[in-house]
Design brief:
- This protein is about 10% helix and about 60% strand.
- It is mainly beta and about 220 residues long.
- It has an eight-stranded antiparallel beta barrel with strand order 1-2-3-5-6-7-8-11. Strands 9-10 form a two-stranded antiparallel ribbon.
Length: about 220
């Protein structure tokens, strides 16, 4: 979370020269994230919070910098099944909640002007992920505890669509649905046993609602 606050502070410092100009503001959103593909085999539906600062370069186009916080619960069914197959006679108990902190640059295009503004967007940047593997491996002879941390970062891109709805002169309601894809990450191997927690991609859908606030006038 400290990384998120530092990044947003840095963004505000960078965009300070355009403060008060037409089209400058910030956005705050929250909602749910739904794993898809291989990622859905190992992780459950989670939640997401995002913040960004933006600037409208024209009446139809906007650029922005953003960050956020996402968390996924671990689904152990597939992992345990594969572990039991590879290690007969051993029992695995494991949990691996995963957090993701994105740092992104984005561009948004509006398809109309007025009070309801449908849009499409494209984002790219880096995701910082971290996970803590906790559990134990039980055999006839011993119990082996698992407590390992793993973190790293990977390039990622997102694309999505939604709409902004004017609520007042400076405030909009915003809805966004987007698809996120992180290129590759490798979490952690479980001790000396064959089963490892390795995922080649994190893919998920985000459904977010929030507000956009313009500083100054549009």
């Amino acid at each position: 979370m400290k990384r998120v606050l530092f990044f947003l502070s840095f963004i505000l410092f960078i965009v300070k020269p355009v403060y008060g100009q037409s089209g400058f503001g910030f956005s705050l959103k929250g909602g749910t994230v739904i794993p898809v593909g291989e990622f859905a085999d190992d992780f459950n539906v989670g939640y997401s919070f995002e913040g960004s600062v933006f600037y409208n370069v024209s009446s139809e186009d906007q650029i922005y910098l953003g960050s956020g916080y996402q968390r996924f619960g671990f689904s152990d069914e597939k992992t345990i099944k594969m572990f039991n197959h590879d290690n007969p006679g051993a029992t695995l108990e494991v949990d691996l909640p995963l957090t993701v902190v994105p740092f992104i640059f984005g561009a948004k295009h509006y398809f109309s002007t007025g009070d309801v503004l449908p849009f499409a967007l494209l984002e790219f940047g880096y995701y910082i992920y971290s996970g803590n593997v906790e559990g134990k491996i039980i055999t006839a002879d011993e119990v082996t505890s698992i407590n390992e941390d793993k973190s790293g970062y990977r390039m990622a891109y997102n694309f999505g669509a939604g709409f902004d709805l004017n609520l007042s002169g400076n405030t909009e309601f915003s809805f966004l649905a987007k698809y996120s894809f992180a290129v590759y990450y490798d979490l952690v191997e479980i001790n000396q046993f064959e089963k490892s927690l390795k995922l080649k991609a994190s893919q998920y859908l985000s459904f977010l609602v929030g507000i956009n606030y313009y500083i100054g006038t549009n």
